[in-house]
């Protein structure tokens, strides 16, 4: 069921059964001109049914609707092809559009450096990714967006804002007059956005922190996030997220004081707000997410000059510069 969360802005909750994310907040903004949908859910039947039920309830015509993907992750873009075939025009940030199509056709190209950094002989291999790879395999046509572009929908004029971090090309939509921000996975309540490693030339965590501070300066009354509850005091929540990652960096620094560690050795000793008793109990997907986040923090310490990445017998390890 959809519900109006602001005049002419509807939240369409897409359920994620047996997934810790629980659901996606997709947004529908009807208009007599072109309507807008923000994000879609996984490429799964239960997600498609919920998405289409909300679309039918909103009364919009998909042939006169723009679909904006805040970023390339499959829980946001999985049904983009389906809506495109129904007549929607699809938009996504320029960097994530390239990543999305590359991931569909050559996932090993996108995940290669992460796989390398995880030392695959420790139990997380590229072939095992297929166990949770539910993205469509074909590239699709999209219109790239970048900061400064604008989308007008009914009474709203949304400015595209670049907010890299959660993904390299993550974007949000800012409505200056009404002080609204459709932020995707950038600022979330109750949970923290996963910040993962993408490439040795990208400081994912550093980019995320800069993007948080960027949005902190915006005049915003409501943040409409992609998961969990709506946010009113965005500055307080941003401060909480910054403190969380500062504590993560302190935790990892403490782990490295015991000596050189691989990414997975680091992740296995970190605290995670999950119900599993030990690292060995983590499902494969959770090991990937946890290890990717650990590596993003380790690489941020490298960028800051506080740690260094070393190669020993073909394996990657991290150690403090001044233990």
UniProtKB/TrEMBL annotation:
Protein name per UniProt: WH2 domain-containing protein
Domain WH2: 47-65
Organism: Desulfitobacterium hafniense (strain Y51)
GO molecular function: actin binding
């Amino acid at each position: 069921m959809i519900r109006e969360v602001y005049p002419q802005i509807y939240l369409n909750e897409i359920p994620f059964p047996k997934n810790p994310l629980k659901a996606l907040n997709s947004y529908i903004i009807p208009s007599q001109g072109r309507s807008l949908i923000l994000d879609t859910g996984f490429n799964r039947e239960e997600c498609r049914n919920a998405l289409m039920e909300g679309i039918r309830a909103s009364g919009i015509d998909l042939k006169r609707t723009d679909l904006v993907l805040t970023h390339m992750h499959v829980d946001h873009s999985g049904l983009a092809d389906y809506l495109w075939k129904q007549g929607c025009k699809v938009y996504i940030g320029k960097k994530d559009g390239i990543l999305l199509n590359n991931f569909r056709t050559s996932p090993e190209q996108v995940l290669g450096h992460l796989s390398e950094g995880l030392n695959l002989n420790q139990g997380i291999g590229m072939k095992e990714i297929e166990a949770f790879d539910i993205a469509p395999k074909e590239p699709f046509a999209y219109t790239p967006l970048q900061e400064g572009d604008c989308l007008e929908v009914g009474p709203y004029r949304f400015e595209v804002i670049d907010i890299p971090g959660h993904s390299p090309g993550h974007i949000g939509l800012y409505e200056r007059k009404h002080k609204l921000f459709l932020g995707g996975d950038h600022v979330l309540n109750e949970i923290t956005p996963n910040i993962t490693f993408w490439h040795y030339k990208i400081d994912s965590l550093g980019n995320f922190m800069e993007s948080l501070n960027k949005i902190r300066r915006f005049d915003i009354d409501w943040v409409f996030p992609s998961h969990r509850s709506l946010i009113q005091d965005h500055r307080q929540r941003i401060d909480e997220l910054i403190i969380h990652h500062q504590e993560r960096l302190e935790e990892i620094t403490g782990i490295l004081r015991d000596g050189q560690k691989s990414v997975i050795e680091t992740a296995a000793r970190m605290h995670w707000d999950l119900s599993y008793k030990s690292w060995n109990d983590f499902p494969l997907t959770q090991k990937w997410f946890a290890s990717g986040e650990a590596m993003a923090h380790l690489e941020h310490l490298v960028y800051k000059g506080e740690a260094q990445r070393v190669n020993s017998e073909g394996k990657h390890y991290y150690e403090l510069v001044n233990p």
